[in-house]
Write a structure and sequence with these properties.
The complex is a heterodimer of chains A (166) and B (465). With 166 residues, chain A is an alpha/beta fold. Chain A contains 3 helices and 12 strands. Chain A has helices at residues 3-13, 27-37, 115-124, and strands at 17-21, 45-46, 58-59, 68-72, 75-77, 82-86, 101-107, 111-112, 132-136, 141-145, 148-151, 158-164. Classes of the chains: A alpha/beta (166), B alpha/beta (465).
Amino acid sequence: MTRTETFLQNFERQLGVAHRLSSLAGVPGALKKLQKKIGLKGPPVASPHPDFEGLDVAFHAGTIDDRLALTRADAALAETGTLVFASGPKAPPSLNFIPEVHAVVLRESEILESQEELWQMLRERDQPFPRTLNLITGPSRTGDIEQTLYLGAHGPKEVHLFLVKG
Amino acid sequence: MKLASHLFPEKAKEALHDQNLQKALGLLQVGFPELRRRAIANLPDFEALRDQAATIKDHSLKNLDKLTSAFTEKIESRGGQVHMCATAEDARKAVVKICQEVEAIKITKSKSMVTEEISLNEAIEAAGMEVVETDLGEYILQLAGEPPSHIVGPALHKTRQQVVDLFKKHHDIPLKSESGEGLVAQAREVLRAKYFEADVGITGANFLIAETGTVVIVTNEGNADLCRVLPKTHIVVTSLEKVIPTLDDLSVFLKLLGRSATGQDITVYTTLVSGPKDSDESGGPENFHVVIVDGGRSKLLGTDQQDLLRCIKCGACMNHCPVYSAVGGQAYGWVYPGPIGAALNPALTNPWEMRHLHQASTFCGACEAVCPVKIPLIKMFRFWRTQSFDDHITGRGQRFSLRLWAYFASRPRLYAMKAYFVLPLLKIMAGKKGYLGHLPFLGGWFRGRVLPGPEGKRFVGEDRK
């Protein structure tokens, strides 16, 4: 299995939903579909990432009314189907937790094998360790009521990944 | 948390007759252990990871001073503050002071057993501030006014119907559905407003990494992240044995933690925090405090009880314990129930209060067999039992019987002679039935079981033929 396949298998096992796109140009369409699906009238909120320039989205930190948020993952881990988000000027961490539906853009080449590979990459780059690093594996869930699994306990009920080629 | 462990025998008896509790415990017995079994079946080197984890913890505990200094230095270099607190009282004061300094009115909190240990909520409320638990289980218990019964699923002893009743009683908005989904949805709605109103967010920590000065917090609900990311101030309350050297060490523990606790390869949210938000960052807390509680832990360093500090609070020992499965966590009377509590609580509080807990073990060893960091729990129970005897905590009758037995057991000839006279007598008493239903002074032992009569031949002596 290729790294991408392993990642997708684990991501879906953790109840994430993957959409494969051939280029970034596919993002607006995929996002529109999600918007329609949840019946969202206004534009979704997004992190101010350069990849999202020109999209029909609002750029602000998360508010209580935000139902759909689009953010950019920095990496992913094939081993566990995990998305990795580092905080920064263009990445308000609240957007990963506030919305009901979380849409994430990631490039295939950004998928790493394991946590250990991520740590190595972070050590080698010429920047301090991120203030906040969020490893997110699937939608929010709880087993606190009679040990039954329910999604969307506090964080997103659905995590959609727009996985872009290259 | 108030100590009520001396009431264990009474509480255990009540628990056995509590039908709601027995229903909940029935679910627990099949749930977590089965999920764990399946998860580790998919990871062939699980055993090797357990050894590795135990080694890392032993190394960390041996170098705790150095690692804690390194952690503190890193955090402070990035604008965070570390508060070392020797006692629960010190920690409560430190947290209340931080909250008062930022003029907090409302506080949200994610699940932290250390905060239960130090009775933090009571201190915050006494200082006139509101604190809301956001982990669904902890929230249910806050409404019910009860202590947690499990370190991973604190409200696992509650049935769905009990939660329905609690929500109806405490929430102003009508409950749209009494289903599990309905309950989760309402808790989401109620707590969402709280996150946005909060001035301070308090979380626990699962690990502290010395290499990068990082606090690691794991949840499945995402509540810890909402607690920390929205308010201006984030306070981490944790205990000193959580420090580990490197990020790679963290990976070893993360592989074990989710699988041991809930049978997950990894928890949904694993958050690494290394300071307050940077000046150019577009979100996150401006103030970041880490309160590290000792609470009697450092006195275990270098003793035979040091291994207890390896614990990563996964709850596997209680999920697999026949005693915990029968009586539930609240009977144990303090924050850490089950086998780890029976072994750790006497060290953190006092052995007299905890005297019943280590007696409540069949020594079956299931706890040790599943512990991801290989804590020798049976050895610990034995230590506390011996200690109880030496310190005269063990009752008079029991001490006398143990002494008497020890007297004979350490004198083989006398023992053989006693057996020579007693066995035929027991055989006569057993009679045709072939078993004994009662013996003087052993009423408790015979309640619910019988003793097979002696066969006639003895094992001792057979080997000499």
